[in-house]
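$ ./design --mode recover --in tokens.txt
reading tokens...
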């Protein structure tokens, strides 16, 4: 259970600090399952693999256009 003092301290943080805290917590492997995943990538290997392919294609296009 979260102590009342800790909860009060967190609630007093400004928006930027709350966001930073949230990101730090979601980077904790124990909390990763709670990370926001609107595309369902965490639950689908196929979607994640396809997204990686698309990102690699975009990266190659950018490198080609720079050369």
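writing sequence...
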């Amino acid at each position: 259970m979260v102590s009342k003092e800790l909860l009060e301290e967190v609630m007093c943080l400004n928006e930027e600090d709350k966001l930073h805290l949230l990101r730090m917590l979601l980077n904790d492997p124990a909390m990763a399952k709670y990370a926001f995943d609107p595309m369902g990538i965490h639950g689908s290997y196929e979607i994640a693999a396809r997204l990686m392919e698309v990102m690699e294609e975009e990266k190659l296009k950018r490198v080609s256009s720079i050369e």
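exit 0
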